[in-house]
Amino acid sequence: MEGKNNSCTPSNNKKEPCCTASKCCGQAPIIVGFVVALVFGWFIFPGLLFSQKEQPVEFTHKTHVEGQGLECSSCHAFREDGSFAGKPTQANCESCHSSLMGESEAERNYFQNFVEKGKEVPWIFHQTQPDNVFFSHAAHKLENCVRCHRQMDEKELCSTCHPIGKDLPYKQNKLTGYSAQTMKMWQCEECHARPAHLRDSKIKNSARANNACFTCHK
């Protein structure tokens, strides 16, 4: 009496893939779950994590930098100790806007709410230094900038990290309070992970661009 062959392998011993309907259906929930998790984590969750905010004053860098010929340092200057001031003061703005210059509603609102009241504008920053990172613009403003930045002038040098042509919407992380555009470690690594190209005796502090953790994390 011949025994029944319950295996999926044919009697000619030729090995072929064994996939029953029940086995394939058993894998379906895993595949579907992976796809759902991928879509949620990649597309949906980031939208839930960030909230969009508007600047207290309608302002475009394109109008002021390109239209008026201002430099980045006109509003974002270094302090006397070499550290970066970052936020423009009302004195910076009033050097041009001590009186109404045009007829736009945005300028009129700015003038009434801040110039006439003598209040500083509470600007929100797209680029914020994380609490666990020490970053000095004075240390990164090398003696000869164009040696590393392909013959860029000061305005173009700033735009390497800070887009000037367009003003991005401000998106704040609901958990950390930081902007979505806050400096990321991979941006620092573009130089610090390969410091050899900075080691030039003509560049001030070039040898200090190392990749040790304590260089930036104080």
Automatic annotation (TrEMBL):
GO terms for molecular function: electron transfer activity; heme binding; metal ion binding. Pfam families: Cytochrom_CIII (PF02085). The chain crosses the membrane at residues 30-50. Coiled coil: none annotated. Residues 52-111, 129-217 form the Class III cytochrome C domain. The keyword Transmembrane helix applies. InterPro entries: Cyt_c_III_dom (IPR020942), Multihaem_cyt_sf (IPR036280), Multiheme_cyt_c_menaq_reduct (IPR053547). Keywords: Electron transport, Heme, Iron, Membrane, Metal-binding, Transmembrane, Transmembrane helix, Transport. NCBIfam families: mnquin_red_QrcA (NF041781). This is Class III cytochrome C domain-containing protein. It comes from Desulfovibrio litoralis DSM 11393.
